[in-house]
Protein 1
Amino acid sequence: MQRQRVTYLAASWCLGYPDEELLERMPLIRSALAEFNGLDRSFGDVLNALTAKPLAEVQAWYVQEFDLSKRHALHLSYWTDGDTRRRGEVLIGFKQVYRNSGMLVNTHGELPDYLPMVLEFAATVDLAAGRELLTRYRPSLEMLRLALVDDSLPHAQVLQAICDTLPGASPTDRQQVMKMAGYGPPTESVGLEPYDPRLLPMQGGQ
């Protein structure tokens, strides 16, 4: 359980916008990860990337890859609902989970399905409820992971570490992600744009 908490909090910090506070936390992050066999290797590349260049350059790179690009969207419901009307209902569901915890969760202006926020919630507020959200949106995590793998970003290893805390093995391709989500194989390959799997054909022509 403690390994999961450390994984989620370290991932939350590493996937968020890099700033001076993150750099100050680096020794703490490395020390905490080293307490668990193999965990430091999952985060090693991204931690090195975050400190390999001046902070301003790292920040500019982060904005380009995560804020301006939909290819690496960090909002879980974006991968399943895109910018549809239904997504508003989904976001309300995230907020309700936070409210049910009895703790005041500061969203800092972010949407409640923002992955670093969900991870921090799981690590520091309610592990069970946070894991339930991550499990429910496992297909989103896997789609993001595959996108990061495609673009050779070190954050892919962090997503893998998150997925490793959840039941079952990670899919090897997007078609397997669709099966994980309970949908049949798409008629054409799924790209990196947000998709709604409910709109894809079901197996057996259902």
Protein 2
Amino acid sequence: MLNNKTKYTKFIKTEAKRLGFLSCGISKAEFLEKEAPRLENWLNKNMHGEMRYMENHFDKRLDPTLLVEGSKSVVSLLLNYFPNHEQNTDSYKLSKYAYGTDYHFVIKDKIKMLLCAIQDEIGDVNGRAFVDSAPILDKAWAARSGLGWIGKHTNLLTQQVGSFYFIAELIIDLELEYDTPVTDHCGTCTACIDACPTEAITEPYVVDGSKCISYFTIELKENIPTELRGKFDDWMFGCDVCQDVCPWNRFSRGHNEPLFNPNPEMLEMTKKDWEEITEETFKKVFKKSAVKRTKYSGLKRNIAFLKD
């Protein structure tokens, strides 16, 4: 006879799979002791650049019980976004995660369905979904719940599938069975460090966010520093270099989430098309996309920077 903890844990993992999540791991909702000095050090060195929001809610970032009252468990979820088709080779590049519908909407809906299923099955369970938009250390929780290890490029890595997936959490006030972390399998490999065009990976397991191409093309609102000209490898929104060169990503398989399929027009666009993109086309192609975050003006700025 299964005890309730085992039964509920099994149900949540089975349901997560049914909803299309790649995997689901669970850890105890408690203070992240190891991450506290690491985060403090990163902030003190100003590696967040203009991302001032990273300074807010320091305690909440490290303690989920401050985010969800009475929380007992952090359910970490991975959702594959590796595309089945990639951009035209004569094109400015978009990070693969931004090809389709904005992941925030897609994942939030799935997690809400998961919470409803938990409540229907178990009863009065309270929880809150987090998709990269609240003060929570997604990768730390995913690693803690055995979904992978944090690689030298600071992305979560999984032996079977690499790193092209989104990470999200459901924090609930239900005690469950907890998973254990897996071991690091980066070994002596330094592919990501060697390949980073702007040398943003300053040492293994440390990324200076203020040097990352993703930061410059998405987060930075001012002009991109001219000394970086020629170093962006044609990335106009985000950057996948450290993931593209990672040996573990040879195991990546195309996703099966229709909402992540790109607008076919986007895949065919050439550099010339991007240079001539109008606001109307931008709105049409990126109607529900994460690219809207940089706005039309931001994308035009990035393209002009690459072209000059």
Protein 3
Amino acid sequence: MTDTARTHGNGNAPRLSGTVRIVGAGLLGASIGHALRAKGVDVVLSDTSPAQLRLAIDYGAGRAARDDDAPALIVVSVPPDVTADVIEAELTAFPDAVVTDVASVKLEPFRALKDRGLDLTRYIGSHPLAGRERGGAISARADLFIGRPWVVCRDEETRAADLALVEDLALDVGAMPLEMTPEEHDRSVALTSHVPQVVASLLAARLATADEDALRLAGQGVRDTTRIAASAPELWVQILGANAEPVVDVLDALASDLTTVAEALRAPEAPGARRVIAETIRQGNDGVERLPGKHGQNRKFEQLVVMVDDTPGQLGRLFGELGELGVNVEDLRLEHSPGAQFGLAEISVAPAALHGATEGLQERGWRIAGATNE
């Protein structure tokens, strides 16, 4: 691969040139296709499901394959249990192409391919940290990767031009490439993605047999912590099985912490019990503070809670008037009040903007439910 395979331009000009072949036309594959097509890149799609393939093509994620296709880059976007097989097939079928995959586990397919004795010089594993609760080509979006990390796993055999090709893929779809080893990647996603899925599912499972009266009290807290519990079980059986060891390490540590808290709560009046509970909450505060926020910053924002009538156009009016006040909305969370015809818009703003936003909105007739520091 030479530098002619890359076009560095400004504005909407793509970095990639030539044809990109995407194997797997589900959510991630079709979303990559949409994003590249929007940049003018020639995208060819392949999928073992004819119906899925036709649907992705109909939605504009790419075109059907031709016998004379000579892709410069191949993106494998298939379930984890067949990722290694498809990578091997694509390396064999297209001996001049660089092959990457977007599976959420990186070490297992790499080891499987190594064990088969394959030349992996042209293979570079990668993983975009993006997704939705819904899957399939019908849920694909061109903006799915904008601002999201895209991990690229190189090794000592990776050629610079090939690495640049995969990084250009990430940049063309709006993501931020980040280099990691497969081991570093899998340990990281075990903590930040895979264990949260297990925890959300376990908590949500408690709701399945809960009394209706209890569910009526559900607020934004339980909705936030169980949102990802709607994910597909079939996919997560594969992901968790492929990354079992680092996931078990985190779950074991979490189970130990839960046991410690439970023991403290069994005797809350015992010496030291309240300290255990307080330290647990404080350590959670410390962890949340380390999470990167907007633009990767660890900035603190103030929370402005505005009551919004449940009628058309109200959110648009609220944002418009915040804009007139010169207030930038850093983040937004909506909470609906059960049985009430209004919702609560929790708006994150810069600390310096809180006072002006509060007074300005009140002058315009908005009801402020609260203002807090995050």
Protein 4
Amino acid sequence: MPDFFEDVARKWKSFSTGRASRKSSRIDETAVKTAYARWAPVYDWVFGYVFDSGRRAAVAFLNELPPSHLLECGVGTGISLPHYKTDHRITGIDLSPDMLDVARERVRKDRLTNIVALEEADAGDLSAADASFDASVAMFVLTVVPDPQAVMSELARVTKPGGAVVLVSHFADQKGWRKWFGEKMAPLSSSLGWHMDFSVDRILGRSDLRLVDRRRIGPIGFFTLLVFERV
């Protein structure tokens, strides 16, 4: 199915007409909310399988930790929430109220009693106090936010020293099949403001986060899992 992603993008074109506009590398918050309001009802159907390996790899790492209070940044529709260990306590944040409505319904329907809160928030300006969480995770978030460094700073700030900051995303260091796959995904990913040309170097080299694990995941290694220790 060489044109799968182009086909899906065409079918759901009406959902992406409100996608974020770009000006001086910033994304208008209202446009982002409008775009995700359109995508919220079908997000899991379109992206659920495609990004499943990345989500599961991140959650699997976190499930190896002792019972913890975790922050999921960019929780979206809450598609990952049922996969956490029940002795973890999860706080999820997202910019989109419509995506959060889907997540809350998932929590209710699946009776997920370990979800502490699902809150509307800007990932680059969190209200949580310093060192509020034992670990934090951002799945497919860094390549869409207008200020990745601000998000990284916030993830580090709210994570306790010695805790883990876990990221998973696609980064622009691909060749062969991975590069071809990325090119096929471009029409669909652009409808949500994702930057397929995002370099991982933009989020490395921080003094407050020490990289302890980096590995490709998924059937063709298309995504990358990064695990940092909060220094």
